[in-house]
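Hi Prof. W.,

I finally got the Thiazole synthase prediction working! I wasn't sure whether to trim anything, so I left the full sequence exactly as given:
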Amino acid sequence: MTRDVVIIGGGVIGLAIAWELKLRGADVTVLCRDFATGASHAAAGMLAPDAENISNGAMLSLCWRSRALYGEWTRKVEEITGLNTGYWPCGILSPIFSQQEQSYTYLSPSSRESPAFWLDAEVIKQYQPGLSEDVVGGWWYPEDGQVDNQALTQALRTGAMTLGVEFKDGVKVEAIAQHQGKVAGLQTNLGLIQADHYVLATGAWANELLPIPVQPRKGQMLRVRVPESIAELPLTRVLFGQNIYIVPRRDRSIIIGATSENVGFTPHNTPAGIQNLLQGATRLYPALQNYNIEEFWWGFRPATPDELPILGASHCPNLTLATGHYRNGILLAPITGKLIADLISEEKTDPLLADFHYSRFQVQSSTTTQMLTHPANFTNGHHNHLSLSTSEETIPDSQLIIAGKAFKSRLMTGTGKYRSIEEMQRSVASSGCQIVTVAVRRVQTKAPGHEGLAEALDWQKIWMLPNTAGCQTAEEAIRVARLGREMAKLLGQEDNNFVKLEVIPDPKYLLPDPIGTLQAAEQLVKEGFAVLPYINADPMLAKRLEEVGTATVMPLAAPIGSGQGLKTLANIQIIIENAKVPVVVDAGIGAPSEAAQAMELGADALLINSAIALAQNPPAMAQAMKLAAIAGRLAYLAGRMPMKEYASPSSPLTGTISA
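And this is what came out:
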């Protein structure tokens, strides 16, 4: 059983999972950026799988199962906390305005498991007085209901704390650090947080951390209050109409919602949004126009392209997904908590989870090369993440994360040794790289090939990696690193604290000084640099550098500029197996086949300069290296076949016809 779990997201889904995991004996920590701004607080709390006309069979089953859990689930929460969740199985009315709209009555009673009853105009207006004269009838869904979403969320949090769940508020997860196919930790504004297992339950913000197609769908809402002069509550039924719902609470407040706007994370209420809500609500229940308006608010629903949640396993065995609940986060909280807790604590996979796996959004293509070079293969169209694909299957890949900054390309290039600035520009473009290393001293002295370099590249698209090439001592390297940081600022990269650390006293073989490199790294880390040290392929030195806080380790494959290939293969493999920071193979690679082999080992990235710049056609070689890096990464993720000492037939012998 997994004992140590970190849940990213403190909304109702994260809380429900934390609650269930803690009941199963896990040690649970919940990271919450801002408890008050999630969609859980902005909802109306309807439990309405029937009234909402959920047509997807798997989704309807999931919602029915969750609704069935609600009574006992909230009773336990209230029992432990002493707090009222506002659970009210009051049923939901769906009035309609014309006989033509009877097609909007969803499923007839005979075709559904949940009961539904048609009420004609006279009956529905007796059942709920005050409905508009235009209402000609409607459906009554007796098993639907509501819960006070804000009260529920607070009770769940209080209950989880009572059980011993740890909450860390004000924590923003900036990146999910992944290494060798597993989550190695969470990069946060408070530093690195690690656990045995992780759950992504960040709602509308999930796409900021992983390439899954979850987008915010803004919803505006308002609350009115029944005047005290009215003794009895005039509205006691949830009213669910077309594009409008009205939810009465027992405290005399009435919630009206909600718009559905595809405007990203644009905040605030708008006159148009509130006007549409008021028009729809007063048409359905005219008395609302005389009630006091208490409050306006908005929230962001986590919407997927098919409006179904993403639940279950991810591409990392120690990361579970629970996001994309769209309009039904409150409704699905009990079942999501149960299924995810079963999956993590007992490795028990409910068959229904297969219908909500993230892989349903993977794009397939008949053109292998196109898919291999495409930067994002998810239907949301974002280009922040990389997904590697074959013509038959897509393999989602994690981002390259260095010091909390995400990159989609795993190939870095240099700017030296080119025959012209123009050739360098074309090569950088062909490589598709996002990180380019620049020798600070050569730019400052305007060495041949470096004149005008600062103006030659678009530094709004390319991340500069200043390097300390030419420095023979730790002291020199530290001084040049500081100059490099200032150079990056002058080019508009104010937050660039990266430095490629090179300490090379030997002019013949250009092998890095391990002692000087370690000394300089320690000082630069203390000064806030993200240090990417160039080193011999020494596993012990790599570990020491990682311990002092470097952002990567960059072992050489062969002497720099030699093009000899992977001469230090065994040591690089040891470094990769033991490193908890990205491993960038640097120096010595001369051909795309060697680049692919380095990535097949599990290297996180490559830095290649000479092999591109000294080729007969540098831009073409840059593109070849780009494809090699992608192919090698894809091969690593796919997993090669085991080597055998003997032959094995490609076609099995079993089941063949014998004479």
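Residues 537 and 571 are 6 Å apart (CA to CA). Does that look reasonable to you?

Thanks,
D.
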